[in-house]
Amino acid sequence: MDAHMLSLPISTLNPNQPCSVEIGTTVSEAIRLMQDGRFGCVLVVDAEERLVGIVTERDILVEITGTGADPIDVLVDDIMTPDPESLHASDPIAFALNLMHLGHYRHVPLVLSDDDSRGDEGGYPVGVISSKDITNHVAAFLEGSTERR
Q1: Residue 98's closest CA among 7, 21, 4?
Q2: How far is CA 132 from the centre of its chain?
Q3: 3 state SS of 99
Q4: Residue 41: closest CA among 65, 22, 58, 24
Q5: What is the dihedral of CA 109, 13, 19, 31, to 10 degrees?
Q6: What is the pLDDT of residues 41-71, one digit of tens each?
């Protein structure tokens, strides 16, 4: 892996489209969406579709399964990480790798940047980058470099 690869924009990893729910959604509905789409997280948005939180598989294990709470009675608002750190698709892969390492995150939301299509301060989710996406990218690079030898 070289510096050039880490300087490529996150968009080159073809990030997943976000799975999102509005504030006030039950955890059971979020779980259903995550299972149906095979997502490791769900982004929580407000009525204006701005990112306000993230709920991960781990949040569900710790806050619901681990406590015996009924996911039908719990809202995503109650277990989400509010105001999650996010990146832009144009940011370098190195930024995602660093943020995941420092924050111990497996998923990082991608939002529109300030100068993107809506012309305001951003905060609209457009994707999710996962540690698996980066691992797959590195593995493909390593596979290609061993074939050239």
Answers
A1: 7
A2: 11
A3: helix
A4: 58
A5: -100
A6: 999 999 999 999 999 999 999 999 989 999 9
Quick one: tokens of 100?
A: 């995941």
| Distance of alpha carbon 149 from alpha carbon 144, whole angstroms | 9
Are 146 and 138 in contact by the 8 Å Cβ rule? The answer is no
Question: What is the residue type of 133?
Answer: D
Which residue is it, tokens 């959604």?
A: 25
Rounded distance between C-alpha atoms, residue 123 and residue 35, angstroms: 25
Task: Give yes or no for a contact between 61 and 34, defined as CB atoms under 8 angstroms apart.
Answer: no
CB 125 within 8 A of CB 111: yes
The pLDDT tens digits for 56-114 are: 999 999 999 989 999 999 999 999 999 999 999 999 999 999 999 999 999 999 999 65
Query: Other C-beta atoms within 10 Å of 85: how many?
Result: 13
Helix (H/G/I), strand (E/B), else coil: 37: helix
Tokens standing for residue 88: 């832009």
